[in-house]
Amino acid sequence: MTSAMLTDLLKSLGLLGSALMIGVFLRSKLRFLQKTFIPASVIGGFLLLILGPQVLNVTGALGIPLEWYHYYSMIPGILIVPVVAGVPLGLRLGHTGNETDPGFMKNVFPLFFIGLGVSMAQFAVGYLVHLMFRGSYTLYDQFGIELGIGFVGGHGTAGTLGNTLKEMNLPYWETSQGVATTTATFGIVGGILIGIALINWAARTGRTALLDKPADIPSVFLRGYEPDIKKQNSMGRETTQSSSVDSLAFHASLIFLACGLAYLCIKGAKAANIPVLKSISVWAYGMVCMFIIWGIICRLKIDYLVDGAVKSHITGSFTEFAVTGAVASLPIKAVATYIVPIVVMCLIGYVVTTGWLLLLSKKLLKGYWFEQMIGTLGMATGVFITGVLLLRICDPDLKSPALTTYSLSYTVTSIVYFALLNLFITLPTSAGVLTTVISACGISVACLVGALIAGRVCFGKVENA
């Protein structure tokens, strides 16, 4: 790569950043964007998409190279590597950060199985829709996985799919990444609407523990920013002194170290032609390498140098640009070709996800079952913060310990989810779609059994009204 190419990449990121800032502005001003809780990155990405060569081509008239949109299609697959690799860094499952009833913490175990089970059920639904429409459409092998990628994974995880398919030398990686971005948009909007409807129903029927009617959504969640400096949250601890190294740079270095080791691992596996290992995606290696790095840090008792909040903000920044790039480069014509199976897939996904969470949470969780369920619903149709938003509506002051159990179960679920993700991306090509459906259903059933056992072991026979 030459200096001119790097300069061109930097210029393209300037346009991407500008679109993200416009997205922030539009989100803060337009009520319909606030009501649907569409992230600024998605808004900015759609703006670039509309102004780009596929629609109005305003960018072309302004002299913006078409190649920049090619960069944007590749950015999600690149940036998702440090995002996934960073997951284990700072992981402290035993530390909740507040006073919580130890008995209530037992909810984490069944909630983990419930959350993981619904993600596997989404994979099963997606590939079942693939089988339903296979006679009417020319579908690529992985069509259907986008439901679980978009709903549980969110917009950022679409890059994981694109990255893996590209590594497999499959020509439809951009189309699949675009479909996943589309299902993620359906997921976050539909999840919010379903969540608010459920909160209204639960409040009217006495199923919420802390309120008689849904609370107003805090204005800062709608606008997307907090104007009062005194109320703004801290981004985390400054674990290092800037006289030596900036704390953000230190955390980023650990993440990039894991990424570098991951690329070395996959290069070695391919050079040695090791079966299975040579086919594992680089982001999966990144997660394994980070577990090792974090384990060494903990063994050396210098884990005080790592702050999970700082790490989350770094990977969150990568995700924002990955999402903006993914939406901006969404292949409209290719996605439009599959719009009917996409809509059917999402509608069935809404029903299965909501039904699974409602029935199992009510049956297996003890205390604040609805609050924990609604947070998990947000995660299962959007991202972690979507669950927090829904939880804040039915527990405005966060008086219940539901946020703690939701956070812990989400952490473990995300790790296992990414560990299994590569299997469901590669299995349709190696073993067929039907085998993939059976595998997803099998793991879902195993999670159901695990949830039942965890609930019985933790609480005995649980009956929730």
Would you write up a description of this structure?
The model has no long low-confidence stretch (mean pLDDT 90). The protein has 19 helices and no strands. It has 465 residues and is mainly alpha-helical. The chain has helices at residues 3-29, 31-36, 40-51, 58-61, 67-85, 108-133, 146-153, 158-167, 173-204, 219-223, 247-271, 282-299, 308-328, 332-337, 339-364, 369-381, 384-394, 402-431, 433-459.
- What form results from the Cα inertia axes? globular
Tell me the major beta sheet: none
How helical, in percent, are the residues? over 70%
**Series of H and E elements:** HHHHHHHHHHHHHHHHHHH
Derived structural class? mainly alpha
Number of strands: 0
Please indicate the percent range of residues in DSSP E strands (runs of 2 or more).
Answer: under 5%
Provide the gyration radius in Å: 22 Å
Distance between the termini: 63 Å
